[in-house]
Amino acid sequence: MTKTVYLFASGDLRLSANQKCWPAQEALENSLTTAVSRFGYELKRAHPFLPHKSHGFIDSQRYGMDVFQSIPNGAPVIVAEAVWQYSHHVLAGLFHHKGPILTIANWSGQWPGLVGMLNLNGCLTKAGIPYATLWSTDFTDDYLLNRLQAWLNGHPVKHDSSHIKPFVSANAASEPNKVGRQIAADLLQQKAILGIFDEGCMGMYNAIIPDELLHPMGIFKERLSQSALYAGMTRVTKAEAQAVRTWTEQKGMRYLTGANTEAELTDDQILEQCKMYVAALRIADDFGCAAIGIQYQQGLKDLTPASDLVEGLLNNVDRPPVCQAETDRLLYPNQALPHFNEVDECAGVDALITNRVWRALGLSPETTLHDIRYGEEFEGRFIWVFEISGAAPPQHFVDGYQGATSERQPPMYFPLGGGTLKGVSKPGEIVWSRVYVQDNRKLIWVEELLWPSPKRK
What are the backbone dihedrals phi and psi of residue 64, each rounded to the nearest 5 degrees, phi first? Predict the structure, then answer.
């Protein structure tokens, strides 16, 4: 007898994004349906394609809650993602679901399906909800099929994690060990503030660290409002905004502008972004913040151009100077003000501590948040694609500002436009690190050195 597995597809909140990305999701589901049927199971959508919206995604938390009420509470569930999605659309239903849960993503560089799945995985991990996870390019490979069959038959899905090693502080070299302990002691003594411009961006439950886990580290939140940031922008003069743009252009940065505000980057959009940069620094200084995060994606996106240019500049040591509004006091001189993209507090803690450690070690302290988007074999090597929406510091680029460009963000995500800060990354070693919350009880820090030089062992 054929057994039923229920499929859920969490999507974006933005209609334009769901419509644009739906064909990729549909292709994934067709391939996954074929794979599941090989083992005598029927993959049944728990929610329909919506003709009046031209997509079949769950696009709100309420809709997700309602859909979960329509399926048996103990049935096996697959959440399949070919796109970026808002995890809270399905988190409530998964939280109370009693059946086995499998998250699946397509392995594709088209849309960030892998990122969407990983975000949901992070939310489930924080919430203490058991789940298994898989991914595939076309859903015909043995790695996927063998593990999918195991999960369908009630067995655990196993992946090789032998590369993960626990960090033992006693094994660290003497100088880094000493620096790390001193920075930890300084945090406890002097404390640090994360400026949170509205918490919970895009339903990213995994990106909110409980205060009780931050306070023992000496880190505290200043909960700020994006409306205050917008109000601060209105107080920045056009001359001050123009000075920011002029400074970057004198450094060699190029803005790819046009006249069509709905599809191209315009001069007015750039000036609004420059106003946000100035306002963000001034508010951070007012509250004594050591790092800040701007949500932007909800609310602010309907008022002003994107924050990406702002974020890239803030994360760079060499950046346009900004003074306090009432005086000529320079704000955060010769320093980056770490910005954690999309108010991802886990990235914020990581960036704050990395900034201090690298400065103490005499290293360039610029950091940025990147998604693990994709990877494939290229000329005999496996190449990972790390990408964010366009908010990297120029220090990370070949030729710095001279290798940096700004172009309009896509209208389906950013209706009022705004420019990126993008370039070709410098070759060399990358330190990838991430903080995550496990079972809402403890912080886990993961770090890895990627692409080491061939000369080093």
Answer: -60, -45
| C-alpha atoms less than 13 angstroms from C-alpha of 314 in its C-beta half-sphere | 33
Contact partners, residue 51, CB within 8 Å, separation at least 6: none
> 256, 276, 279: which is closest to 266 by C-alpha?
256
Predicted model pTM: 0.93
Please report the sign of the dihedral spanned by the C-alpha atoms of residue 355, residue 374, residue 399, residue 319. negative
Query: Which residue do the tokens 């090789």 mark?
Result: 160
* Distance separating alpha carbons of residues 234 and 231, to the nearest angstrom: 5
pLDDT digits (tens, 9 = 90+) for 185-200: 999 999 999 999 999 9
Strands 101-106 and 77-81: parallel
Give the pLDDT confidence score for residue 2 in this predicted structure: 65
**Between the CA of residue 340 and those of 367, 382, 409, 425, 427, what are the distances in Å?**
9, 28, 19, 19, 23
- Is 143:37 a contact under the CB 8 Å cutoff? no
For the stretch 249-304, pLDDT in tens is 999 999 999 999 999 999 999 999 999 999 999 999 999 999 999 998 888 989 99
Q: Closest Cα to residue 418, out of 243, 227, 273?
A: 273
Which residues in the chain come in under a pLDDT of 50? 452-457
Q: What is the DSSP letter of 265?
A: B
> In a 3-state reduction of DSSP, which class is residue 102?
strand
Q: Where are the beta strands (DSSP E) in 142-255?
A: 192-197, 219-224, 254-255
Q: Which H helix or E strand runs over 359?
A: helix 345-360
Give me 13's structure tokens: 């909140």
The count of other CB atoms within 10 Å of the CB of residue 410 is: 15
Q: Are 449 and 429 in contact (CB under 8 A)?
A: yes
Query: How large is the greatest C-alpha to C-alpha distance in the chain, in angstroms?
Result: 77
Cα separation, 173 vs 456, in Å, equals: 17
